[in-house]
Amino acid sequence: MTAPPLALYVHFPWCVSKCPYCDFNSHALQGELPAARYVAALEADLEAQAPLVAGRPIVSVFFGGGTPSLFPPESIARVLARARGLFGFAPDVEVTLEANPGTIERGRFAGYRDAGVNRVSLGAQTFDASMLKTLGRIHSPQETRVAAEELHAAGLANFNLDLMYALPGQTPAAALADVEAALALAPAHVSHYQLTLEPGTVFAARPPALPDDDSAHTMLEACLERLSTHGYGRYEVSAYAREGRRCRHNLNYWEFGDYLGIGAGAHGKHGDADLQRITRTTRWREPRRYMSTAAQAPALREVEPPERPFEFMMNALRLTDGFVPALFEARTGLGWVVIEPTIQRLVARNLIERSALKCRPTRRGLAFLNELLLEFMPETRAGAAS
């Protein structure tokens, strides 16, 4: 059995300030950035995890956060050099760096390019200045425009723009205006996702007035049409790309591929050659504790066979093209017969459509994705079978 592709996720936990909607493992920077110490910990983490996936090259790298662009290009270069030395990189490796427009100094994108970055994800969120303040963002719309110009000038035209919709008090016209402003910057990829109130965030504790579901749906449909008209195909619930510019790193997640996760709070997932075992790894979330333990092996949790259908579908059903049954079998180590009854029920409810080759969510299934996924929980499948 062929092992799935192996990706690398690198987490940087610090931001200038914590956004009120963010539930990621990110921390407002207090004092000086401990760049050298943190990068040394990342290198130690790579060495500690290398035995878990010995001999497998890395096909993509994603520097996420937090705000990785707080770190200088030299830091990124060091991590890439150590990863390349330990694992080897695929010839066409995709290397993405998340960047906040408010933390980019002039000329720095050229430095990241020289370090090995060939794709950037820019956190625009919105082009409404007052809304950016509401969201706790530290940048201005003009800083996003300048950052995009610098990306093009640095030869990094393969960049993504993050946009949010259904923001506090937002109208469909305002959401569409954000898409128009993004298109003017000629990104290769747009991530367009709805603001949700996540537990443990400031917005969850003090909820702002958000558009109702009907308004949010109207926004989505209008923005989807505009993006499609301009050549951005929707290939995942929240992802739109020009031809040939789909994010390979995220596709590996959505197709239940393997990935190493290094950095504070990072998660990973890998299987052995015959998928007798699929294991998830986790690292300590608190940055200081992470840095003091990075050289140790990560915490491990085995994904038991009854859990695997849900874990696979949680990713694969986000893809508008769906998946082939052979992929389910190859990535979970289970036979299709395990989920055939569930698939049949969901086809009958018009949540999944099935052709001779593929299964994929219907338009209704994408709109009710959480409900769809619950059908693959072990207890739900067991109850339906009894």
Major beta sheet summary:
9 strands, mixed
Distance between the termini: 33 Å
What is the level 1 CATH name of the largest domain?
A: Alpha Beta
Rg, nearest Å: 21 Å
Tell me, rounded to a whole number, the average pLDDT.
94
Cα shape: globular
Identify the CATH homologous superfamily of the largest domain: Aldolase class I
Number of separate structural domains: 2
CATH topology of the largest domain: TIM Barrel
Task: Describe the 3D structure.
The strands form 4 sheets. Strands 9-10-8-7-6-5-4-1-11 form a 9-stranded mixed sheet, sandwiched between helices. Helix 6 runs parallel beside helix 8. The longest helix has 17 residues. The protein starts with 5 loop residues before the first strand and ends with a helix. It has 2 domains: 246 residues, TIM Barrel; 80 residues, Arc Repressor Mutant, subunit A (Orthogonal Bundle), CATH 1.10.10. With 386 residues, the chain is of the alpha/beta class. A hairpin with a 4-residue loop joins strand 15 and strand 16.
Fill in the keyword field for this structure.
3-stranded antiparallel sheet; alpha/beta; TIM Barrel; 22% strand; 16 helices; Arc Repressor Mutant, subunit A; 9-stranded mixed sheet; 16 strands
